[in-house]
Amino acid sequence: MKTKEFNKIKPYTYLVTRLSDNKKYHGVRWGNKVPPIKDLGVVYFTSSKKIKNEFKHNPSNFKIKLCWTFDTVNKARLHEQKVNKKIYKRTIWINKNAFPAIFNKTPTMLGKKHSDETRKKISEWNQKNHPMRGKKHSLETKKKISQAGKGMIHSEQSKILMSINRKGKHKGKQHKMFGKKLNRNHPFILAAKARKGIPLKEEVKKKLSKAHMGKIISFETRKKTSLSQMGKKNHMFGKKHSLATKNKIRLRSLKRWTEAAKHAWSGKNHHNFGKKWTEEHKNKIGLSVKGNKNGMFGRKHPEETKQKIRLKAIERRKHYG
Fold first, then answer.
1. Is residue 36 one of the residues assigned to a domain?
2. 119-130: b or e for each residue (b if 16 or more CB lie within 10 Å)?
3. pTM for the complete prediction?
4. DSSP string of 16-83, one letter each residue
5. Tens digits of per-residue pLDDT, 188-237?
6. Is residue 72 in some structural domain?
7. Helix (H) or strand (E) holding 166
8. How far apart are the first and last CA of the chain?
9. How many CB atoms lie within 10 A of CB 244?
10. Most buried among 33, 77, 314, 319, using CB within 10 Å?
């Protein structure tokens, strides 16, 4: 609630007019230790670098007006923002360039950085006083935000800068979500559940394929991936597929590997057609399936399986002559 209790120690908004050119400055003050009538023009001379010194040393050139008082700092700040959003394009206002960089020809923080102490203060203030704290955007607002961002493409320079900035950060124990799990009602989880069972569109598949084409995963990365899924870390460790699941996998495989699909993967269409493995590569494959590493180590095929293998081989010889 805004009031005009200028004789009480409260956050307040004010208007300062420079008489020499009739330019105005609208601001907010909440760190006052005395009432507004004993503060503005006596102890406090605005936070504007453009008029602060002049106002302090030549107060007769300025006319001051106390606008409103507020019960909380947050209400005072929000009111100042609301008023200032309406005036930022008008040349009669001195504090035009006190607004976000999107409104300025020269951003106010250009070439500057907030100190760690300032960042911490901003973070702590936002945790308690952020205008969206405890609120949610309506669906209409979300759609507007979505539409505003559609079609925007980062330049190559921006991509490089973002990549450099993120390298070595936000991973492992440094990541804010390290050791935590997303809430079951988190938008990411709900979106994933909503898409469960829905196959990707062919257009999306082609885009993903194109994006990953030509990329080679380094040996170091492959080793890390392997170690992250080894032993107890594997989601199937100590488990077995049920008969129902095995049947589903088998039926899926039969549908996928049609004669046309087999033909598409054979001969000249095969990724290894016309290529030869090096002796080193052959040795690696040999060592990877040698001894107890082999899936059949210490086992024997039953007679039924042997018969199936035999019949398959005969059928294959007849087909290929």
1. yes
2. eeeeeeeeeeee
3. 0.36
4. EEETTTTEEEEEEE---SS-GGGTBTTTB--S-TTTHHHHHH-GGGEEEEEEEEESSHHHHHHHHHHH
5. 888 888 888 888 889 999 999 998 988 888 889 999 999 999 988 898 99
6. yes
7. helix 156-166
8. 93
9. 8
10. 77
Query: Alpha-carbon distance 6 to 17, whole Å?
Result: 19
Which positions ≥6 away from 66 have C-beta within 8 Å? 4, 6, 12, 14, 36, 37, 40
CA distance 170 to 176: 7
- Residue at 44 is within a domain: yes
Cross-strand bridge partners of residue 3: 69
Place of tokens 């899924």: 229
One-character DSSP codes across 197-226: TPPPPHHHHHHHHHHHTT----HHHHHHHH
Task: Give the contacts of 131 (CB within 8 A, at least 6 positions apart).
Answer: 74, 78
The domain that holds 39 is classified in CATH as 3.40.1440
Domain that holds residue 85: 2-103
Q: Is residue 19 part of a domain?
A: yes
For residue 31, CA distances in Å to 6, 11, 294 come to: 14, 7, 75
Amino acid at 261: A
Count of domains for the chain: 1
- pLDDT confidence of residue 102: 41
Q: Which residues contact 278 (CB under 8 A, 6 or more apart)?
A: none
CA pair distance 27, 47, nearest whole angstrom: 8
Q: Which strands sit side by side in the sheet containing 2-3, from one edge to the other?
A: 2-3, 62-70, 12-18, 23-29
Whether 9 contacts 69, CB under 8 Å:
no
- Residue 3 structure tokens: 């009031």
Amino acid code (one letter) for 59: P
